[in-house]
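Progress against Task 2.4 (sequence-to-structure conversion) is shown through the following example record, which the project officer requested during the mid-term review.
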Amino acid sequence: MGALKPWHIAVLVVVLILLFGAKRLPDAARSLGRSLRIIKAETKSLADDDKDLAEKADAQHGRQPLQPDPAIQPTSVHPQGYQPPAQPVNDPVQRGRDN
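Structure tokens generated for the chain above:
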């Protein structure tokens, strides 16, 4: 019952010719072919992008963090890791208000 038989295809072609006319069918088929080509190219480029992202992620996964240089001695550090600036910071907004 669900099989597509040759006479089904023939009836479908006749209906399409009656609806659209013989002159428009080649243009419609050409447009459909172009659209399918574009869709195929876009899906291929998306798949390639996914592969590139996976390769980049694998390359970054193999990286190791830099080790601190033992020759450089840290200066005094706040217990939470905050180090105050060496010189006072001048706020440009505050300087504008002072004038």
